[in-house]
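ok, trying the design again with the full structure, not the truncated one.
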């Protein structure tokens, strides 16, 4: 009898399982035109990306009703979100401004001659209806040490490719 209970327990453990973990990344949005714009001036480099604590995690976060948020157990970012945003924004700017005008995140900056884009994300989330919203403040800083000019605010909203609120997230 004892062996039968043990065998049944092992069989039940083998039948159950947790859902497979899904990993997500961000994709740049291709520019409308085929040729990058020819911007003048010193090169640009995406610098720090600041995230609020609720987003600074491996798990995807979606908005629930009212003040609730849902932190997924099986949907995760493929890399730290600040790194994904920084690299995706760099790719996007290179496609729009040209690769000579935008330095990669780990490229050495030309001392005093590189403009730095600093991004402070306020909100980056999806909801159950598939609406994805990004709210952020950004500024261009120049000099050594970098001094920021005006701070700009942006709010972007897109419908995700699926109703889960994040499967089609693009930057």
């Amino acid at each position: 009898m004892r062996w039968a209970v043990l065998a049944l327990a092992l069989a039940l453990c083998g039948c159950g399982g947790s859902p497979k973990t899904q990993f997500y990344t961000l994709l740049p949005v291709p520019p409308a035109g085929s040729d990058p714009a020819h911007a003048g001036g010193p090169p640009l480099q995406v610098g720090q990306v600041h995230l609020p604590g609720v987003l600074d995690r491996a798990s995807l976060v979606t908005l629930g009703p009212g003040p609730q948020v849902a932190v997924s157990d099986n949907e995760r970012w493929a890399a730290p979100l600040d790194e994904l945003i920084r690299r995706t924004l760099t790719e996007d700017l290179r496609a729009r401004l040209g690769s000579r005008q935008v330095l990669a995140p780990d490229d050495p900056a030309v001392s005093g001659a590189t403009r730095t884009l600093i991004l402070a994300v306020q909100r980056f989330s999806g909801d159950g209806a598939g609406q994805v919203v990004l709210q952020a403040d950004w500024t261009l800083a120049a000099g050594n040490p970098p001094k920021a000019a005006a701070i700009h605010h942006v709010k972007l909203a897109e419908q995700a490719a699926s109703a889960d609120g994040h499967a089609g997230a693009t930057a």
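Keeping the full-length input from now on. The first strand starts at residue 22 and ends at 24.
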